[in-house]
Amino acid sequence: MVDSWTKVGVLAAVVGTAATVLALFGFNSSSPTSGTSNGSPNGSVSQPLPTPPISSFHTYQPRLSLDPSSGPAGTSVTAKGTGFASDSLVQVFFSGGLVGQGTSDENGSVTISFMVPSEFSNFAGTQITVSASDSQADNADQLFTVT
Question: What pLDDT, in 10s, does the model give residues 1-60?
């Protein structure tokens, strides 16, 4: 059975949490009459909705395409990326090794050409991960098949 003091403690925790959330969004719980009257019969007071803080996080969804997507060591490959941070250094890696870099345009697009490293001449039939990463740590991957 829950005693009265437990109920009071739970209620205080809920009210305290609600007050904290309201304070985070700019509502002042110590001044219930601030704001403008909405003309309702019960005389309630309304406040404009707060503007959430602007986040410093960004959301990019980079994509990478390879042309061609297969070939032997020494093949010239064009990597086209979209959705990267604008005006950002984009680096291309072939199986983890840096093979090229370029700067994305104002739309987050970039084209970088590279050669399949000669060390992969004995990897025929193997799929290798080609990754592109910008200076904001946005990444896109695509597979290249060594023939």
Answer: 555 544 444 444 444 555 554 455 555 545 444 444 455 455 555 566 666 555 555 567
Q: What is the pTM of this model?
A: 0.61
Q: Tell me the domains of the chain and their CATH numbers.
A: 4-46 (no CATH), 63-146 (2.60.40.10)
Q: How many helices (H) and strands (E) does the chain have?
A: 1, 10
Distance, CA of 147 to CA of 69 (rounded, Å):
10
Of 77, 107, 75, 72, the residue nearest 92 (C-alpha): 77
- 142 in Cβ contact with 70 (< 8 Å): no
Please choose, from the candidates 137, 145, 115, 113, the residue with its C-alpha nearest in 3D space to the C-alpha of residue 62: 137
Tokens of residue 133, six digits:
């990463």
- Sequence letter at residue 53: P
In the DSSP assignment, the letter for residue 9 is H
